[in-house]
Amino acid sequence: MTLASEYENDDLNPFRVRSRREVIALLRSIGERNQLVRMLINHGQDTIVTSILNIDEKNDIVLLDCAPTAIMNQRVLDSENLSFETVLENIRILFNSPAAESCVYEGLPAFMIPLPVNVVRLQRREFYRVPTPFTNPVHCTIPVKNDDQVIPVVTTLHNISGGGISIVDEKKLIDTTQGRIYEKCRIDLPGGPVTVDLQIRNLLEVTLTNGKVINRVGCAFVDPSNGTLGAVQKYITKLERDQNAKATGLG
């Protein structure tokens, strides 16, 4: 129900392809069709665009294109968690790897990662989560009850889909008990704010480079109005267009 950064979410289990033969076939098709692959580094703190160069079945290795800069290449090599996302025939494909190593493929620098044990195939659009920009963040204000008071807690969106959002709670002020519902939350989309009830679905603690630990909270929309869904989908479409333009050098 997510981007690749939430690949291990249990909600995705029904969509996992676990057959080695099918995993290889999927990844090989992605490479042969020259599909761009988004690589998320350290739970999405950095992102680069890569592609699958080849599948080494004998050694269970996937060969990937390098990043355009030495700095980004080193960040990939230093990362202990890599997640990948792409699209094949309008189906979102997610997989991950614990780490990458440098190598040479056809005389050029490349990465190699272990063949994924499983791959997630998502066909329902509500599962497509799109990352929101760091440079122009979208905020979500959540009313948190504290004794007899209601405190508005301002969080930042990490990603968004037709079914929910992932938010960053830097001060850990939100009760992240699974199933907890927060009513009348305001999401300040660029096209105008929307109000929706949110249900807590999952929690991921992320350690930043400065050592600070923050909460990344996955939330599902609860009975959203058609107007809210329309505004969310309009924003998702804009994000996807911007990202596609950037990936192809047009943005």
TrEMBL record:
Entry keyword set: Bacterial flagellum, c-di-GMP, Cell projection, Cilium, Flagellum, Nucleotide-binding
Every Type III secretion system flagellar brake protein YcgR PilZN domain range: 15-121
Annotated ranges, domain PilZ: 123-236
Subcellular locations according to the entry: Bacterial flagellum basal body
Keyword flag Cytoplasm: no
One Pfam assignment: PilZN
Domain of life: Bacteria
Coiled coil region boundaries: none
InterPro entries, per the entry: PilZ_domain (IPR009875), Split_barrel_FMN-bd (IPR012349), T3SS_YcgR (IPR023787), T3SS_YcgR_PilZN (IPR009926)
Keyword Nucleotide-binding part of the UniProt annotation: yes
Quaternary structure annotation from Swiss-Prot or TrEMBL: Monomer. Interacts with the flagellar basal bodies.
Purpose of the protein: Acts as a flagellar brake, regulating swimming and swarming in a bis-(3'-5') cyclic diguanylic acid (c-di-GMP)-dependent manner. Binds 1 c-di-GMP dimer per subunit. Increasing levels of c-di-GMP lead to decreased motility.
Family: Belongs to the YcgR family.
UniProt-listed HAMAP family: YcgR (MF_01457)
Protein name: Flagellar brake protein YcgR
Organism: Herminiimonas aquatilis
Lineage of producing organism: Bacteria, Pseudomonadati, Pseudomonadota, Betaproteobacteria, Burkholderiales
Gene for this chain: ycgR
